[in-house]
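Lab notebook, entry 303. We have the chain sequence and a SMILES string for NAP, and the next step in the workflow is to get a structural model of the bound complex before anyone spends time on docking refinements. Request logged below.

Task: model protein plus NAP, output structure tokens.
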Amino acid sequence: MRVFLTGATGFIGSALVPELISAGHQVLGLARSDAGARFLTEAGALVQRGDLEDLESLHMGAAMSDGVIHLAFNHDFSKYIANCEADRQAIEALGSALVGSDRPLVVTSGTGMVYAPGRLATEDDLAAPSSAVPRGASEEAADSLVSRGVRASVVRLPQVHDRVKHGLVTFAIAIAREKGVSAYIGEGLNRWPAVHLRDAAPLYRLALEKGAREKGGGARYHAVAEEGVGMREIADAIGRGLKVPVVSLSPEEAAGHFGWLGVFAGIDSPASSALTQQRLGWRPTAQPGMISDLDHARDFEAG
Ligand SMILES: NC(=O)c1ccc[n+]([C@@H]2O[C@H](COP(=O)([O-])OP(=O)(O)OC[C@H]3O[C@@H](n4cnc5c(N)ncnc54)[C@H](OP(=O)(O)O)[C@@H]3O)[C@@H](O)[C@H]2O)c1
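Result returned:
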């Protein structure tokens, strides 16, 4: 397939480009800068110049392709709601080029989008609406395309890690470095699920190749290797790495310590990938787990 890949120059995209090419696909990657275009060319991909805000460039890339994977997202959290709504528009532009065809579209969401207190979130759980959680816009956009006959599916990501980046934990490290303490809330029993970068990339490929066949669209997949890593364990690993004290904070104190990350820091969102493994034959095999990656993280090398 010729696969149009947005976010091809990012953390996950950089792992997905070689994954797709080595499986025999051709990649048309979205690049908004000369540096991004050079990176993609060197990785063996074709380049579609454009921007998330330039909906025509997204529509064109999708129209020229046999399938689309959408990873790009503006991670400026000071404009989070606007960025989530821009993601809705981007998905709509990509999907509108696929209406009336069997060409697949894979969009990105998060396992934290599911509210499932006291149990593991599953693929069959619906995401929170965008009125409650802004990023719900991404799954709503996919659902709207499914209702128009597009073979759209959703990959929900947990914290994706290697030794360089670790999802939201990367931001928690920066905060702990700045504040001189690594914090968790209460007893730190709340959990974040996780997956290694090398396991996340093949799941996107499988979702593209085999996904959403059952109902013509609407499938959800969870890229989860570790169902829930405790926040206390994460805070301890950060404390070890930075050689700073580890402290428990009340929810009120946490808002001051974590800033914008405070919204996420107290969330208990363990998730399962059992249905994904069953439906796509995906198996997370890459080691190490998130704590082990943190224990060897590049963030801590300098200090
Ligand atoms: N990493 C995680 O742990 C995690 C967890 C949950 C969900 N996710 C989601 O997974 C997806 C990929 O994440 P990631 O970690 O790979 O993100 P990333 O490293 O920040 O990469 C973001 C990508 O989006 C592109 N992008 C940003 N703004 C753009 C714009 N205005 N126009 C065109 N391209 C733009 C970037 O291009 P440039 O290279 O030009 O900047 C880059 O390719 C995102 O939807 C993210 O929210 C990630």
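Notes for the group: The first strand starts at residue 2 and ends at 6. Worth checking against the assay data. The pocket of NAP is lined by residues 7, 9-13, 30, 32-33, 36, 51-53, 71-75, 108, 110, 157, 159-160, 167 (CB under 6 Å).
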